[in-house]
Specification:
The chain has helices at about 50-60, 85-95, 100-105, 115-125, 130-140, 165-170, 185-200, 220-230, 245-250; strands spanning about 35-40, 65-70, 75, 80, 85, 110, 145-150, 175-180, 205-210, 235. The protein is of the alpha/beta class. The two termini are about 25 Å apart. The structure holds adenosine-5'-diphosphate and magnesium ion (MG). It holds the Pfam family AAA_26.
Length: about 260
């Protein structure tokens, strides 16, 4: 984990103005301050959503909360004992303090490592967003904090009409954006920030994750994002050959999530 200083945003783009307009689901217990649930999205697939979701779970647990992770839709699962095994789901379960039923944690699992709407169509399954919402609400009864990991980037189709942004909107959760720091991430990050704002959702914070050990001009890229993203920078995660979610958790600035 690297040290980060307070962000110093420049004049925000008009599309950011509704960031804080939406209602947050707040806990009434001050010990569990901040949002009840978070939706973790990323600039792409493979940018560290699972790592940061697990780190958030550990950080919330360390702060005295009971926690549970959720992966509403997982692809690339491997057939095994008792059904399909998904690495993301298992990582989230290991990082959760509450053991919740698998069907709530991961309502939809598919074997092929392909786009979910394709995997679902091939399996003859319709991904029902309302079913996912019911599962989320059930998890919210079981733990103080629910961390929901999205699928791929922010607008991954789930069926013919809806995508993961619609899911985030239906769940009405503040969003944490994981930026996988590599060449090309600036536009991906800003497009995602814009798409979140366009839906009236709250960007609760973002994380800069060094997924490449030797990204050129890392500091300049980080600064470009800090100047443009109004939401708090929750952490800058260093590259690690074998990243450890517990260690990453120690560097996340959770209190920033509670800010209005
Ligand atoms: N900071 C990091 N340093 C090194 N490897 C990382 C880092 N963050 C993520 N990774 C690796 O990148 C891969 C994708 O991370 P993951 O959290 O699964 O991303 P996503 O959930 O967005 O697909 C994993 O192999 C993970 O261990
Ligand atoms: Mg993942």
């Amino acid at each position: 984990m690297e040290n980060i200083a307070d962000s110093s945003p420049l004049t925000p783009h008009p599309s950011y103005t509704n960031f804080h307009a939406t209602r947050r689901v707040e806990s009434r217990n001050p010990a569990q301050a901040g949002p009840k649930g978070l939706f973790v999205t990323g600039t792409d697939t493979g940018v560290g959503k699972t790592l940061i979701s697990c780190a958030l779970l550990h950080a919330f647990t360390a702060a005295g909360n009971s926690t549970v992770g959720m992966k509403p839709v997982a692809a690339g699962c491997v057939p095994g004992q008792g059904g399909l095994h998904c690495e993301d789901v298992e990582s989230l379960q290991r990082a959760s303090s509450v053991r919740a039923p698998r069907e709530l944690v991961n309502p939809y699992a598919f074997a092929p490592p392909v786009a979910p709407h394709v995997a679902a169509a091939e399996a003859g399954v319709t991904i029902d967003l309302k079913h996912i919402r019911h599962a989320y609400l059930a998890l919210a009864e079981l733990a103080d904090k629910v961390v929901v990991e999205g699928v791929g980037g922010f607008r991954v189709p789930l069926d013919e009409f809806s995508d993961t942004a619609d899911l985030a909107q239906l769940l009405d959760l503040p969003i944490v954006l994981v930026v996988g720091m590599r060449l090309g991430c600036l536009s991906h990050a800003m497009l995602t920030v814009e798409a979140i704002a366009a839906r009236g959702l709250t960007l609760a914070g973002w994380v800069a994750n060094r997924i490449e050990p030797d990204m050129e001009r890392f500091d300049a890229n980080l600064e470009a994002l800090r100047q443009r993203i109004v939401a708090p920078l929750l952490g800058v995660v260093a590259f690690a050959p074998q990243p450890d979610a517990v260690r990453v958790a120690r560097g996340l600035l959770l209190p920033l999530l509670s800010q209005p």
